[in-house]
Specification:
151 residues, Immunoglobulin-like, 2 domains, 6-stranded mixed beta sheet, 4 helices
């Protein structure tokens, strides 16, 4: 429970810092989706992000993640797409909170994002890309040898 609270506090602080630094507008900061970051399952995340149907598997969404993560505390993950994306998200299916990262792309931005995520155990990692109001996805199983979320 404390880990989830800490994550929520970190996200809130990050959004506030980004707004005060002018990296995002106050309107964008106000609309970050708390429900999506608190969702426990992939389906709940998609619903919280406004998806009315399951995302469509697409070869136009590329997920870059290792087959084996030696340290679950710092797993490098990247998403790119040939679709004109407006949002991207990275989900870790078996984490306590499935949504690990969310990216809002301004018009004309390159549809690419990269970060490091924590994984408590081996799990499917899912890349979501929103294009033309629909969600598209790609998934990959990543095996974790040393846990990162309390492992």
């Amino acid at each position: 429970m404390n880990l989830q609270r800490r994550k929520l506090m970190q996200m809130t602080a990050l959004v506030g810092l980004m707004a005060s630094a002018g990296l995002i507008t106050q309107a964008e900061a106000a609309t970050w989706d708390k429900a999506a970051f608190e969702a426990k399952s992939v389906d709940d995340v998609v619903k919280a992000l406004g998806g009315s149907t399951a995302p469509t598997v697409s070869d136009k969404v590329t997920l870059r993640a290792p087959d084996i993560a030696e340290n679950g505390a710092v797993v490098p993950v990247g998403v790119e797409s040939s679709l004109p994306a407006t949002q991207m998200a990275i989900l870790v299916e078996k984490n306590p909170s499935a949504l690990a990262a969310m990216f809002i792309l301004p018009e004309g931005a390159e549809p690419f994002a990269s970060t490091r995520v924590k994984m408590g155990k081996s799990s499917n990692v899912i890349a979501l890309v929103k294009s033309d109001g629909k969600w598209f996805m790609s998934a990959k199983e990543v095996k974790v040898t040393l846990g990162g979320c309390g492992g």
